[in-house]
Amino acid sequence: MMPGMQGGGQPLLVLNKNTKRDMGRKAQLSNIHAGKSVASIVRTTLGPRAMLKMLLDPMGGIVMTNDGNAILREVDVSHPAAKNMIELSRAQDEEVGDGTTSVIILAGEMLGVAEPLLEKNIHPTKIVSGYMQALTDALEILNSISYPVDTSKHEALQEIVRGSIDTKFVSRWGNLISDLAIKATQTVYIKHADGRKEIDVKRYAKVEKIPGGELKGCEVLDGVMINKDITHPRMRRSIKNPRVVLLDCPLEYKKGESQTNVEVTKEADWERLLQQEEEEIKKVCDDIIKVKPDLVITEKGVSDLAQHWLLKANISVIRRVRKTDNNRIARVTGAHVCNRTEELSESMVGTHCGLFEVRKLGDEYFAYLVECKDPKACTVVLRGATRDVLNEMERNLQDAFCVARNILLEPSLVPGGGASEMEVAARLKEKAKTIEGTRQYAYRAVADAMEVIPRSLAHNCGADVVRIMTDLRARHAVPGGKNWGIDGNKGNVADVKALGILDTLVVKRQTFRTAVEAAAMLLRIDDIISGISKKKRDTGAPTQHVDQDQVENFGDTRDG
Fold it and tell me: What are the catalytic residues?
């Protein structure tokens, strides 16, 4: 008797009849097609001649970009495998910040080449085993064709960063963005005594977008800038070599906790209460004035009375600054953020800033703390015609930051323009001949899939794809041809190393690893079950009594 059959030959229903279930080959093909369709969305955005995508969000906003991660972030998909693919792009962006489009195209192709293998009835486990062996060998080949770079030379760094953002919208402005990215990254670069390198661009290099002005107004400040004005018009707006005090406490009388009510019977008592508030503020201001600052910046509010006392002492005040901005100011001025004014001491005062100035840009006032000695944080000012242009510039700048950070952390390069992929494909195809059994098919499939990157590059710049791919295969088949790739601007085969089209080893390694591992994981799925418990509850269908909070929160603690 077949499993799942009752004695009378009736099939036994274990799952709810409303549950949708795809099994075996159907589930695998469904995942493969979902992966390929996600890859087809971003395929035309690869390379310097890439197309832009215009995305409309539900609120009516428009995003115009060719950044793989930005596109897929806005796309709403329902298929679970497609969601998994989009997650790859996000992971790649967070990990190395570049190669978001490549990783999706490569993962889609890895799934695509597995389809004929499944048709030949090769077991998914065998395919995955071949994929993993190919990945290990591909990473070894990458290491063997990489070469070190001298990060002390500005020209070398500029060439590398320029190569990565040449495929982006900002490439028309020459070295502008790459110079901004290199300067900002080198500013926040810290080498610890134990040899550890720290480059926290996200926290300490703030990008400030100001519409209007000219492109040559874009700059990396040797300090920071915040969108704030001083609290009182008579305070000094420009101070040379200011003594800066940073606070994380309010300079106003604290309100009572939990809605305190005070009943006052005598007028004298009311006067005394007000006087006590004034004395408290005066005491706080005296604590500050004791260390003789020129500028006080607090994350909380400042009362009119505190402004009065501080103005009398010729101190400028900025209030309600973000915590992240305060941390950046602390890095550039050498000040320590103080939580209570009683604890203020001379060592907490920042003296590294050369100039404090309030300037007006467009309609708004900005406070500048610049000309700092050895600042370890900075602000990148971007000026441009429209907000859309500025948003795209910022996205491209973030990619450039990541490339500059990667090359400073691990100064190794591999040839770009599809040359690395072609070299890895050629070497894997040679090695596939030595592998026995059905695993050889999967191993060779990875080599075929690698060619999708140069093929997409050639396609996007309008070249003759078949002729170029044949030419590249022939050149990589002979020793010493590892630098032959595609010049994405002209669409012909060229020596990419001579042209300065280079990729960082970190990004390539992460791209290969993410794409192959994701494809392997999706290929091992042979059953997709989608239940409809919430809908079932809403339509009023009879269900077993289960605590609904438990149902909705099931697995939350496990999944974090």
Answer: 67, 100-101, 399
